[in-house]
Amino acid sequence: MKDNLNLTAMQSELRIIIAADTLRLHNIYGADAVANLEQAAIENLPVWQNMTTLFGFVVHARIASDFPVNDVLHDLTDYFLEVIPRSAMIGMYAQTPITGICQWIVENAFVRWGLDSGEKGTFTIKELAVLAQMDERAVRNATNPKLTHPLITFRDSDGATKVERAEVLAWLERRRTYKKTVYVDTAGQRDFSKNGFVDLTDLWNFITEQAQRVDQDVQALLTSTGLMDDYRDWCAGSLSHDRVFNAKGFKSVGESLSFDVKAFVLAACKPYQAYQLACVERMLASGGGEK
User: Fold this and answer.
1) Residue 94: φ, ψ to 5°
2) Which domain holds residue 277?
């Protein structure tokens, strides 16, 4: 997994890329040609929305079932894997260096989609490491033939070590760290008392999806209900384990989005409790709880 990977970091890099590319296009085609792009709210641009969706697909293994992954990847692969890396002008106009977070997301979205759709037949050790959320060296160690269930590889014509898709699927099923993709029916209704939320990612994605369905501004909703700090910290991967659950804030969200308020608040509380428990377990395992 790429270091310091979180939604905020990816969106910050994307903001730099869009600003640099807009300036590049301005200098090539003139002000009139890019006037609409320069005036547009960056969060409303398709590239911003699609990259945010692909981040959830790669990192959290969740995506709307009706999201056109193949079409979007066709466009974004060309842009982030060909145009951006090869354009000296974008590098020249960028305010700060681009570290490749967006490129990494697109590359690995292609890998996950290839696995899910069956359109990709073989995978590299590096690709498996990302899918399994493991260190690349640990995946190589898993190929040891002395193991009970070793990862079976073969040497491709280009000399690279590859793994067939069927073997990848079987091997990933045995990895606790692997997240199988959840394709979400965004139009469906959720029974909070029965289904609840799998984790905090599921909770925040659900709120975002439901707000968008009724044309509510998500950031305005979270700000007005006092939940923006929680959401921002979750995006940045820095949500504190001792953050107090804001029942009043979630109650306001439930009322605003016309949910069954009591059932929604109780359901929202559970992934917070699970997150805090997991943080405490990690702390104790590392010796952080010893006096």
Assistant:
1) -65, 135
2) 189-285
Which pLDDT value is given to residue 144?
Answer: 94
Q: Classify 64 as helix, strand or coil.
A: strand
In-domain check, residue 183 = no
Q: Rounded to the nearest 10 degrees, how much is the dihedral formed by the CA atoms of 199, 204, 205, 210?
A: 130
Q: Report if residue 181 sits inside a domain.
A: no
Of 62, 82, 113, which residue is a domain's last? 113
Strands 122-124 and 161-164: antiparallel
- Under-50 pLDDT residues of the chain: 290-291
Is position 199 within any domain? yes
Q: How many helices (H) and strands (E) does the chain have?
A: 15, 5
Q: Looking at the domain assignment, is residue 1 inside a domain?
A: no
Residues near 175 by Cβ (< 8 Å), separated by ≥ 6? 132, 134
Instruction: Pick the last residue of a domain from 85, 113, 141.
Output: 113
Long-range contacts for 256-264 (Cβ within 8 Å, ≥24 apart)? 256/216, 256/221, 256/225, 257/207, 257/210, 257/211, 257/214, 257/216, 258/214, 259/192, 259/210, 260/192, 263/192, 263/193, 264/192
